[in-house]
Amino acid sequence: MILDLTHTIRAEMPLYPGTPAPSFTPCSTLIRDGFRETLVQFASHTGTHMDAPAHLLRDGTTLDVLPVSQFCGRAAVVDVSGLPEGGVITAEFLRARNGEVLSADFVLFYTGWEKKWGCPEYLRGFPVPDEDAARYLVSCGLKG
Asked: Which residues lie below 8 Å from residue 79, measured CB to CB, with a gap of 6+?
């Protein structure tokens, strides 16, 4: 099964504070030019996107050098929706789910935050892995 987690990029979509809004400017029209073309501008972290190590690490890898196979595989969904706002996902919590995590290529955290899409609360307080949990996930050899 393929699960699409993306949102459509729109000018009025929720954005991280300081990120410029996407813009869509017609530059060619059927009537004038015989074809349609739109200039699309948005920051690389607009909407649903993949981050590369280079986003936060000085010598991190960029997405353009990773093979397409890096982005396909089996995912384990780990439900963290029971954690309170600002909750922390620990390595201990993940180790208790070793069967799920170790049999997957990707780990997806289900936070329940989709209910907050379009609200200011969407951008803050969601559960995040602590440093030990991140190290544990790296040690599992996951793709993502």
From this structure: 110
Give residues with Cβ within 8 angstroms of 94, minimum separation 6. 78, 101, 107, 129, 133, 136, 137
Q: What is the pLDDT of residues 103-143, one digit of tens each?
A: 999 999 999 999 998 888 888 899 999 999 999 999 999 99
| Among the listed residues 53, 56, 134, 63, the one whose alpha carbon sits nearest the alpha carbon of residue 101 | 134
Question: pTM for this structure?
Answer: 0.82
Please, are residues 100 and 78 in contact by the beta-carbon 8 Å criterion? yes
**What's the number of CA atoms in the CB half-sphere (13 Å) around residue 70?**
12
From the list 131, 69, 132, the residue with the least C-alpha distance to 106 is 69
| DSSP conformation letters of the chain | ----------TTS---TTPPPPEEEEEE-HHHHSS-EEEEE--TTSSS----GGGT-TTPPPGGGS-GGGG-S-EEEEE-TTSPTT-EE-HHHHHTTHHHHHT-SEEEEE-SGGGGTTSGGGGSS--EE-HHHHHHHHHTT---
Calpha distance 29→21 (Å, rounded): 23
